Amino acid sequence: MWTRQEYDGIRFEVKANKYRFGNGPAPTVRIVSDPTPAEGVRQRNLARLLRLVHLEGPLSRAALTESTGLNRSTIADLVAELAREGLVVERAPDPSRRVGRPSPVVAADPRVVAVAANPEVDALTISAVGLDRGIRLRERIEVDHLLTPDETAQLIADRIALWRDGALAGSRVVAVGVAVPGLVRAADGLVRNAPHLRWTEAPVRDLVADATGLPTAVDNDATLGALAEHLFGAARGIDHVVYLNGGASGIGGGLIVHGMPVAGAGGYAGEFGQNRPGIASDADRRADHGVLEDEVSRTRLLAAVGLPSADEPTLARAVAQAGAAAADEVARQRRILSTALSNAVNVLNPSVVVLGGFLATIAEVDIPGLTALVREQAMAANGDDLEIRVASLAEDRLLIGAAEAAFAELLRDPTS
After folding, report:
1. Can you tell me which residues the record assigns to a coiled coil (predicted)?
2. Across residues 75-100, what is the average pLDDT?
3. N or C: which end of the chain has fewer CB within 10 A?
């Protein structure tokens, strides 16, 4: 797979030889010609338009003109090129708007899709997400063993082949995004450590790209969940956000600061599950010297409601209908979670905390009560205007985030 780099003003692409050992074959390098100034401006304007209809949904040409400051003829020319590239479609103007000159509506073409996947300890969830953000297909493949990286790549490839001959016939699959519950190196999609899956130094991006023949993006699942909720969900329009995701593999997190995702030096920021919150009562402790995800745990929640495994909606229903033992476990986890959240609030001073997965399930029992517990333990100034929200994209948040990572290169350069 080619990766684009730049050194001393020269842009080039590198394709590593994955079988290289010692003094074996060196990576292949090719120079990438820079666009002329005019071409560069046009590329950026095409990207602006495509990103607008991707993020905001269908927009009239008049709205695009207003948003970009470009003139109407330029907008018409750019839209025509995006349509020729098969990236947008135009529709007749809304007949209810009769004031002024009718303006055609431009929308992202739903036939352009990314395939998003989320491997977990009990299942591989895979989906086809349109450039218009519509979930075209979604499937949860339950497994009775830990998936290997190679098996995951092959399952994704097999599903894409099946869908191309069926439900996605006539669609254009442009890339794959994978949300992994573990530490992912941002530079090359190498999974350094996904402890619950037992993946170590796994070249997941290259494996999936080789199996599918498609450009592939890989990142931490919670990082992608935070991105999705910030762009489209509960944190939309919020500049300072802490996001925590609770899944089968534990607890991860993502950060939005000044409206931008914060990944850290290597891409590993947000590992809230590995922190050790103070536990006020010894009666609440279940794991000596344990970290947050040892105490606030989906596995413990499933045991309390008597289920061996469940997807998110099933677990939420079970918790809502469960008896006193489950209610006690939920209350215990909420107390410990509130301490962890107060620590994050003191350090990062977010305006909104978003909780996804099983953390959303235990929060929804009483969101005002959980907010009060956090405020009691946080500095008063940091907790004054704090809101706790549950992920509004629900079980699709990680897949939408993975699709967003997959679409990133297309949105940066629609003609690439």
Report:
1. none
2. 85
3. C
Using a 10 angstrom Cβ sphere, with 0-12 exposed, 13-18 middle and 19 or more buried, the burial of residue 210 is middle
Q: Which of helix, strand or coil describes residue 192?
A: strand
355-378 burial, b at 16+ Cβ within 10 Å, e below that, comes to bbbbbbbbbeeeeeebbebbbebb
Among left, alpha and beta (phi > 0; psi -120 to 50; other), residue 217 is beta
Is the same domain home to 247 and 339? yes
The two beta strands, 105-108 and 88-91, are antiparallel
Strand partners for 199: 194
Q: How many structural domains does the chain have? A: 4
Per-residue model confidence (pLDDT) at position 7: 46
Contact present, 32 and 25 (Cβ < 8 Å):
no
Q: What is the per-residue pLDDT for 416?
A: 77
Angle between helices 298-305 and 324-348 (to 10 degrees): 160
CA distance linking residue 369 with residue 349, whole number of Å: 20
Q: Is residue 230 part of a domain?
A: no
- Which CATH number do you get for residue 408? 3.30.420.40
The secondary structure of residue 103, as a DSSP letter, is -
Q: 128, 209, 203: which is closest to 172 by C-alpha?
A: 128
Nearest to 322 by CA among 301, 338, 337, 343: 301
Look up the domain containing 11 and give its range. Answer: 2-31
Confidence of residue 22 (pLDDT cuts 50, 70, 90): very low
194 Cβ partners below 8 Å, 6+ apart? 180, 181, 182, 183, 200, 202, 249
Cα dihedral 275/336/363/328 (nearest 10):
140
Q: What is the pLDDT of residues 41-56, one digit of tens each?
A: 999 999 999 999 999 9
Residue 158 counted as domain residue:
yes
To the nearest whole number, what is the mean pLDDT of the chain?
90
CA–CA gap between residue 207 and residue 318 (Å, rounded): 37
Same domain assignment for residues 131 and 253: no
> 8 falls in which pLDDT band (50, 70, 90)?
very low
Instruction: Please tell me the distance from the alpha carbon of residue 18 to that of residue 119, in angstroms, as a whole number.
Output: 23
